[in-house]
Design a protein that fits this description.
CATH architecture: 2-Layer Sandwich
Structural class: alpha+beta
Mean pLDDT: 94
Largest sheet: 3 strands, mixed
Strand content: 25-35%
Low-confidence stretches: none
Order of helices and strands: HEEHHE
Shape: globular
Number of helices: 3
Radius of gyration: 12 Å
CATH class: Alpha Beta
CATH superfamily: K homology (KH) domain
Number of strands: 3
Length: 75
């Protein structure tokens, strides 16, 4: 799932080489942390958080069959 989030973020930002994604398991959930260049933070979040919400929706749709919950955090 981290590859999907990284691919989406790299297509949006101006500095795709500075995109990194990590994941960690916390009980019943898996937290996916997306790190981008500070200049690209606005592009990843989008107006009123629309891009961030869309990324979270794609991850949720891709993991419907998994029993774990996936949480995307943008840092």
């Amino acid at each position: 799932m981290t590859e999907l989030v990284k691919y989406i973020a790299q297509m949006i930002v101006n500095h795709p080489d500075k995109v990194s994604v990590t994941s960690r398991d916390v009980g019943r959930a898996i937290v996916i942390e997306l790190h981008v260049d500070p200049e690209d933070m606005g592009k990843v979040i989008g107006k009123q958080g629309r891009i961030a919400k869309a990324i979270r929706s794609v991850v949720k749709a891709a993991t419907l069959k998994d029993k774990k919950k996936y949480i995307v955090e943008i840092r």
